[in-house]
Specification:
5 helices, disordered N terminus, single chain, alpha+beta, 28% helix, globular, two-stranded antiparallel ribbon, disordered C terminus, 8-stranded mixed sheet, 242 residues
Length: 242
C-alpha cells in the first residue's frame, strides 16, 4: 500500500512539474506556476543566511548548479561558504531520479529588522540557463519569517511576476516566481512592498502536485541543520576542544 501511495505521489510530481509554468496574465501564481527549483533560506542565530536549493529535474547538471550558487554570491557580494552538493532520494529508497541539492551560507538575503526578503538575486542567478534546463518557475521560502506591511506581496513586470504569502505554522514566507525573461539584467524585483495597501495574499488550497513539493520543504530543515553543524566546525577556534 505504501508503495502505491509513493508511486502515485511520484507520478503526480513528475506530471505537475513537467507542465508549462507560464500562466495567464494576472493569474494566481500558486495555482499556475509549477516550481522547477525550490530555495529555502533560514537566518542563523549568528547572522548568516543558510540556503538550500533543490533542483526538481533529476537530469540537472551539478556543474551548472555550482555556477548558479557562485552567481548568487557575486550578486550579494558575499561568497558562499560551506558549500555542499548532494542528491536526495526523498526517502524513496533509490538514488534513481534523486533530487540534486546544494546547501551553503551567505549574507544579504534576509533583513529581519525591516522584514525585507531578497528574491531578486536568486531569480537573477537562475536566469539564462541553457535551453534544455531553462528555469522559469521558482519557489523561494524564507523559513520561520513573518511578513509585515513592508514585505513584498506582489510584483509584476514585463520580465518577472512575483507573489508572496505567509504560510501556516513555522513554514514562513513563500514567494512564487515566474521568469518571463531569461536576461538577468531585466529581472528587477523590489526588496520591499510596491503597494503597501495590498491586502495579504490568502493561502490557496493544496493540490496533488504540491504534496511532494512540500516534502522537499519539510525535509530541507534536516539539510540546513547539517549546514549549521558544518559552519560551527569551520568557525571553531583552533585549539578548542569539546
Amino acid at each position: 500500500m505504501k508503495f502505491l501511495v509513493l508511486t502515485g505521489l511520484i507520478g503526480g510530481f513528475a506530471l505537475g512539474f513537467g507542465q508549462d509554468p507560464i500562466p495567464p496574465k494576472g493569474s494566481d501564481l500558486y495555482r499556475t506556476v509549477k516550481p522547477q527549483v525550490t530555495i529555502s533560506v533560514r537566518k542563523h542565530s549568528l547572522g548568516a543566511d543558510l540556503v538550500e536549493i533543490s533542483m526538481l529535474d533529476a537530469r540537472y547538471p551539478p556543474e551548472l548548479l555550482r555556477k548558479q550558487v557562485e552567481n548568487i554570491g557575486l550578486r550579494l557580494n558575499s561568497p558562499p561558504v560551506a558549500v555542499t552538493f548532494f542528491r536526495d532520494d526523498l526517502g524513496f529508497g533509490t538514488a534513481r531520479g534523486a533530487v540534486l541539492k546544494a546547501t551553503f551560507a551567505v549574507n544579504g538575503l534576509i533583513d529581519q529588522q525591516n522584514h525585507h526578503y531578497r528574491v531578486g538575486p536568486l531569480a537573477q542567478a537562475f536566469a539564462g540557463a541553457p535551453a534544455e534546463f531553462e528555469i522559469r518557475g521558482l519557489s523561494v521560502i524564507f523559513q520561520k519569517e513573518r511578513a509585515s506591511n513592508s514585505t513584498l506581496r506582489e510584483y509584476r513586470s514585463a520580465s518577472v511576476d512575483v507573489q508572496g504569502v505567509q504560510q501556516s505554522g513555522d513554514i514562513g514566507i513563500e514567494f512564487r516566481v515566474l521568469l518571463k525573461s531569461q536576461k538577468p539584467e531585466e529581472i528587477l524585483i523590489p526588496d520591499d512592498a510596491v503597494n503597501r495597501s495590498t491586502a495579504p495574499t490568502r493561502l490557496p488550497p493544496a493540490s496533488k502536485d504540491d504534496r511532494l513539493f512540500w516534502c522537499l520543504i519539510i525535509g530541507s530543515g534536516l539539510a540546513l541543520g547539517a549546514l549549521v553543524y558544518s559552519l560551527l566546525i569551520r568557525t571553531r577556534p583552533s585549539g578548542s576542544h569539546r
